[in-house]
Amino acid sequence: MKLTVSKFAQIADTTVRTLRHYRQQGVLVPTEKNEKQQNVYTIKEFKKFHNIQVLKRLGLSLREIKDYFEEPEYSFEEMIDIQEKVLVRKKEAIDYSLEMIDRIKSINDVDRNKELDVEISMLLMNLMRFEKVQRDIFGEYYSKEFVNKYFPKDKSKQKEIDKLNMNLLNIVNNAVINDYSPNEELVQEELKELMLHSPLKELSIETEETNEELYEKLEPYISLLPNEMVNFLAGAIEVLLESQE
User: Which CATH number fits domain 5-73: 3.40.50.10860, 2.60.40.1120, 1.10.1660.10, 2.40.10.270?
Assistant: First the structure.
């Protein structure tokens, strides 16, 4: 078998552009020419092409494939073991991303006529990304029962918390946009109603020192929120707590 690049592309079910890219990268370079001095692909390149497809399926880049063909650092068995671990990590990352998308979409399921606010949704998704570390931090200061309520592993309960957090972010964002004060009656009524359904109503810090220590550990994640929202929320909650004393 001696085929020009276009004929080989048809047989291999690929494109001329792909083959030229492989050649430029030094992954699949034809070594023979025909009577017209055109590069031709033989059965050797055909086999190598399909080996490349297998290695790509395993997650290797063209550079890694080239290195494997030229100077393999690992045996084939070792390479498979390494790629298995890489693919498992990628699968975990994809599964987590899909779960986060599902959680955001489920919030919108409550009111299909209301379009999700992009900025607020991004803020919530950023907070979701760091749930595990925040769960661990809260676990140092609060009971396991409270931590499990605020960071539930049960998906249906988790989505309920997501909706409460989204509502809280919307309340604060709306207040900031409209230049409300933290003691605005409407804001306080909305916060009070939200807190009735939130595990946060059970929050209590024993000492000011503990409060400062907790805030210091949470500060990197709190900083994901705009300063004006953080400051407004702190003021509004302070007013709410004072009114309940």
Answer: 1.10.1660.10
